[in-house]
Amino acid sequence: MEGLFFNVNCGFLEGIVRGYKSGTLTQAHYASLTQCETLEDFKTQLSATDYGNFLANEPSPLSTATITDKATQILVDQFNFLRSNAVEPLSKFLDYITYAYMIDNVVLLITGTLHERDTHELLERCHPLGIFDTMPALCVATNVEELYQSVLVETPLAPYFRDCLSAADLDDLNIEIIRNTVYKAYLEDFYNYVSTLGSPTADVMHNILGFEADRRTINITINSFDTAELSKEQRAKLFPAIGRLFPAGNNILAKADDIDQVRQVCENVGEYRSFFDNSASAQNNGDLGDLGVAAQLEERFFRMEVHLNKLSFLQQFQYGVFYSYMKLKEQEIRNITWIAECIAQDARDRMHDFIPIF
Amino acid sequence: MGYTTYASFGLPTFLVIIVVLYLLFTDSGEAFDVGRFLEETSPFVWGSLGIGLCIGLSVLGAGWGIFLTGASILGGGVRTPRISTKNLISIIFCEVVAIYGVIMGIVYSAKLQSVPEAELYTRENYFTGYALFFGGLTVGVCNLLCGLCVGVAGSTAALADAADPTLFVKVLVVEVFGSVLGLFGLIIGLLMIGNANEFSPGQAVVSAIHI
Q1: Does the keyword Transmembrane apply (chain B) (predicted)?
Q2: Phi, psi of A60 (to 5 degrees)
Q3: ipTM score here?
């Protein structure tokens, strides 16, 4: 029944987003990009794709940071077009996508202020999709309470910050705890909102957001193994209450002490069983060690994320395509940045370590 | 229990119960008489309602299908302008549904002739009235659902064509099967009034309602 009324407000925008998605780089494009010798070649190859002449006005020599910034700007322009043409409830859905960037910007500003960086420089490094009006005022904050009362209470992030108002000082560890607490509240709120949108959107987004929650849970667990200051109770409070690992897996991970316990938890969930499967490569390279396992895990998380986002395009008449397009385009920008860096630093042996999308 | 549940189920049920109990307790329970209702309602009512439903529901289905398909063609045509010409065929399939409704409306309205009240209530006229009503309802609902079907399939066809041109003909086959549903409605609608004569005056009688 979703097909009967979806096109009234969102049919045009869905067509637009699917058009954007058909312009993402394919394996053929990546093959020609990896054969470039210089960044000028790279720029020429990209001008034949949907990116067009986005680097036309840049003075040579090109830097990879410029390429990334310009590519991100294309994505921001596309998102702003979609957002300005959207009505409720799609406009609220797109707003939820921007809250993730807002959280990153807020944490960036607080951290930068603590380390006494220049305000303007920090504001320039913020992600354009997460900008809100009162952002510069964040740079004068000294503790979370003041931050909340003066700036955050009028932003859409206000309900997420309520749980961490008790954090006493702002130091590096506390900032990470604040970031994860706020992001947990955001994920759960997004999940609940998506449930109110009904069938195909809810199904698609539940899968994607559930995986995001599980990924964060596993990452927090692994990163907290060697940190003595993060107690297990504190760690457990950072796990989102959604996803396949909730509640049993979360409970075990909260008490875990080494990576084998994490592996055991993942074996219980069918889709995650392959994350820790390194038998073939371990035989080739010798024992990977903890760092190697973490790096491989990160890559497998990215692959799973790309896979889930690609699946959402198989359903029509739902909002998941907008979210998935943003994530896939970001992954593509990361890929282009990686290839450009490998060209610039002449490290061609690792050039194929990006995650292919289509 | 939300407000919409109360409004859509609770209030009408309540009103019906009030009316029924009122009739019951004021000894006018026999005022509720289905047979008398059917006998006294003019066949013109049934005929005209049938024609109205026929064209109204057909146009609703066609319009619904056209906006479903049109929004997707416009969206997909921004990046892939080549789809806009080929996918007009989906719009044509939806439009055809409205044409079926118009044809049936014209065929049915040929049965409506002016007849004086006293000579109206003959068996043949009753039959024509009911045939027009249910024939019109059949054609209308068939065309409504056909329009919806072709609309959703056409929307998907447009987006699939934008992604990969070889898919268009394959999805078009699905649409063709969908558009045949409207044709079925047309055929059955014609059969239903096959034996119905147009409204014609019978013998002048003093009908029961004038007493």
Answers
A1: yes
A2: -85, 150
A3: 0.85
Contact assessment for residue B185 and residue B143, using Cβ atoms and an 8 Å cutoff: yes
Look at residue B211 and tell me if it is in a domain: no
SS3 call for A81: helix
Is-contact B119 B33, C-beta < 8 A?
Answer: no
Count of other CB atoms within 10 angstroms of residue A299? 13
The single residue listed with the structure tokens 């940190």 is: A227
Does residue A11 belong to the interface with chain B, where contact is any CB pair within 8 Å?
A: yes
Distance CA A120, CA B8 (A): 58
Please say whether the beta carbons of B118 and B32 come within 8 A. Answer: no
**B50 and B95 belong to one structural domain:** yes
Percent of chain B predicted with pLDDT > 70: 96
Query: Structural domain tally of chain B?
Result: 2
Choose the weakest-confidence range: A239-253, A313-327, B176-190: A239-253
Instruction: Check pLDDT > 90 for residue A172.
Output: no
The Cα B203–Cα B199 span in angstroms is 13
Query: Residues near B35 by Cβ (< 8 Å), separated by ≥ 6?
Result: none
Does any domain span residue B8?
yes
Q: Give the count of beta carbons closer than 10 Å to the beta carbon of residue A247.
A: 10
User: Is residue B140 domain-shared with residue B155, that is, in the same domain?
Assistant: yes
Report the residue from B72, B79, B80 with minimal CB separation from A11. Answer: B72
Does A91 contact chain B (CB < 8 Å)?
A: no
In a domain, B204, yes or no: no
| Residues spanned by the domain of B174 | 37-194
Phi, psi of A241 (to 5 degrees): -90, 40
pLDDT band with cut points at 50, 70 and 90 for residue A59: confident
User: What is the full DSSP assignment across A285-326?
Assistant: HS--HHHHHHHHHHHHHHHHHHHHHHHHTTS-SSTHHHHHHH
Nearest-10 crossing angle of helices A39-47, A27-34:
150
Q: Is B75 within 8 Å of A3 when comparing Cβ atoms?
A: no
B90 with B158: CB under 8 angstroms?
Answer: yes
Instruction: Tell me: do B21 and B97 sit in the same domain.
Output: no
Rounded to 10 deg, the angle between the A259-267 and A199-223 helix axes is: 160
Query: Side chain identity at B166, as an amino acid letter?
Result: T
Query: Taking CB atoms and an 8 Å cutoff, what residues of chain B touch A15?
Result: 71-78, 158-159, 162
Tokens 């049920």, residue?
Answer: B13
Q: Are A38 and A343 in contact (CB under 8 A)?
A: yes
Residues of B in contact with A7 (CB under 8 A): 67-68, 71-72, 155
**Contacting residues of B for A8, CB less than 8 Å apart:** 67, 71
Cα A207 from Cα A230, distance rounded (Å): 29
* CB within 8 Å: A4 and B148: yes
Please list every residue in chain A whose beta carbon sits closer than 8 Å to the beta carbon of residue B79.
16, 19-20, 22-23
Residue B199 pLDDT grade (very low, low, confident, very high; cuts 50, 70, 90): very high
> Residue B165 falls within a domain, yes or no?
yes
Least confident of A223-232, B6-15, B53-62, B148-157: A223-232
B116-147 residue pLDDT tens: 988 999 999 999 999 999 999 999 999 999 99
pLDDT in tens, A98-130: 999 999 998 888 888 888 888 888 888 899 999
